Every structure is written in C-alpha cells, then in structure tokens.
Amino acid sequence: MANFGGHAIPGSFFLFLGCWLTIKHILQHYWRTSQPKGRRIMSPLFRTLDYTEGGCLIFGSFVGIMVEQFVVDGPHAHLYDTENRSWVKLMNWQHGTMYLFFGISGIALVASTASKLVPAGVDRLALSLALFVEGFLFYYHVHNRPPLDAHIHSLLLVAVFSGSASTMLEVFIRDNIILELFRACLFILQGSWFYQIAFVLYPPRGPKWDLTQHDNVMFITMCFCWHLAVALLVVACLSSVVWFTVKRFSGRVQDIEIGMRNTSSKSSSQKALLEESEEE
Length: 280
What we know:
The chain has 280 residues and is an all-alpha fold. The protein is 78% helix and 1% strand. It has helices at residues 4-34, 44-70, 90-114, 122-139, 147-172, 177-201, 214-279; strands spanning 80-81, 86-87. α5 packs antiparallel against α6. The longest helix has 66 residues, at 214-279. It is globular, with a radius of gyration of 25 Å.
C-alpha cells in the first residue's frame, strides 16, 4: 500500500460505497414516506440491494486480503521469520486485518437480510466494528513517521472514528435518514482523503512535498475541511437528484394507473349501457 495505487484503490472503493449508500438510503426513505401510515413492509428490491452490497463487501474483502498477502513483495501467509527472528511485512498483515472486518460486516448484512432470526442492527454493529478496527490499526500505523505523513493519516482517523460512532447510533436509532446520509458522507470523505494522501505522499508528477514543513501541515488541515464540504455537497446533490427523479417517475406511474382505471371504468359503464339497451 506504500504507493499511489495502494491508496487510490481503497479511495475509489470508499467513494463508490458512499455514493451507493446515498442512493440506496434515499430510495428507502422515499419508499417509507410514501407508504400508508403504520405500514413498514419494504419492497423486495431493497433486499436484493442489500444482498448485492453484502456480496460486494465479502468479495472485495477477500480480494484485498489475497492481494496484500500474495503480491510480489508480500508476506505470502508468513507472519514470523524464525531464522531472522523478525515479523514479516506487518503492514500487509494490518491491511489484511482491516479487509477481514469489512468482510465480516458483509456477512452480517447478508445474514440479517436473509433471516429474521438475526437481531435487528447486527449489520450496523458489524460495520461500526469494522470502521473502529480500521481506525484502531491506523492509529498505531503511522508512528515514527515525518510530521506531515503522520498528520495526514491522523486526519483520516477523524472520518473513520466519526463513521464508526454514527454507525453505532444506527444500531439503536433505525431508519433515520440523517444518520444514514451522514454515514454515506463520511465514506465519501474517507475515499477522497485517501486520494489526497496518495497525491501528497506519492505525487505522480511535479515536486515532492516537504514532509517536515509546518505550513504544509496547516494547509493539509484546512484542505481536510474542504474535503468535508465537498462530501456534504456531493451527498446533497446526489440525494436531490435521486429524490426528484423518483418522485417524478412515480408521479407518472400514478397518472398512468389513474388513466387505466378511468379507461376501464368507462369501458365497463359503456358495456353496461349496451347490455341495458339490448334488453330493452
């Protein structure tokens, strides 16, 4: 992961996940608010979406673990070298552990969707735990590094631990659209910040950053706030587009249904009149 691509890949994953969650939760919220009062039955479409999301988490975690273990310079499932009395590629092992817990969250999501025997909120609990483990490992991941390197990774912890805390709240406060969109926003923030880390530590072109200059630390801190603002803007825009699109489409469907009912009622009344005239 100590290269540009190693940060861009998880960044792309979290960006996609944040956008996916925004669209899914807006659709769910529209469905809940459009149902008659007291009716809580969700469409089978959302079960399919949850199965897809859980399957992608499981598959992506498995691929991530395999890549971390069996890249050319990876540990290849060796944790300790008895000959040299040293640990083998602990950074890769830490990344694999992060992927493992996201895979567990995918399993929890699939299980909670498939069976009513699984307590409500287990999927959110597993995801909160996965985010906590990610932040916990990252916290001890950047010791003895240059100031800018350590600081830019510590800012990532703000997004990770905030996401863990908000997801834990969802265990007890179900179907709250504010918490759901906030979680999606933090995933987008985490994804964009992975890209920022990649461009700062491993710039593909141009001069390298001075990792010891304090002004760079101040700028990166301000830049993190800009990333948060952009993440909020993305969630707001995407939510608005999905909401108004679904509302407009559902309005057309309702108009078609009303038109079909009116047509059928007219045809049935005309048929009744013809039957009466024939009887006369």
